[in-house]
Specification:
With 102 residues, the chain is mostly helical. It contains seven helices and no strands.
């Protein structure tokens, strides 16, 4: 259903926690929906949340795509976590390289 709406140009929305359809697609590992959504205009908060989730799930290509779209790896959530701090804890070489962690 959502893929049909996306194909028609519908934009995703963000809930009160900043989690949008893209975030839920990443959490549910819905590859087809993720691919469709990153081609649509996204709110900055949705990009940033998606990056945080992609880092946690170690989705290298998605992290790269989100960074190119302008996701901010330094933006902290209400608990003080960011995609950058998550990446530092995971310490995955490819993620570290994408985020410029040495």
């Amino acid at each position: 259903m959502y893929l049909k709406m996306t194909a028609a140009g519908a934009q995703s929305s963000v809930d009160k926690n900043g989690r949008g359809t893209l975030g839920y697609a990443i959490t549910g590992n819905n590859i087809e929906l993720i691919a469709a959504l990153i081609k649509q205009p996204l709110q900055q908060s949705e990009l940033d949340d998606a990056l945080y989730l992609a880092v946690g799930k170690q989705k290298i290509q998605l992290i790269s795509d989100l960074l190119l779209l302008g996701a901010n790896p330094l933006l902290r959530d209400r608990w003080g976590d960011s995609a950058m701090t998550s990446a530092q804890q995971i310490n995955h070489p490819e993620i570290n390289q994408l985020l410029g962690i040495q």
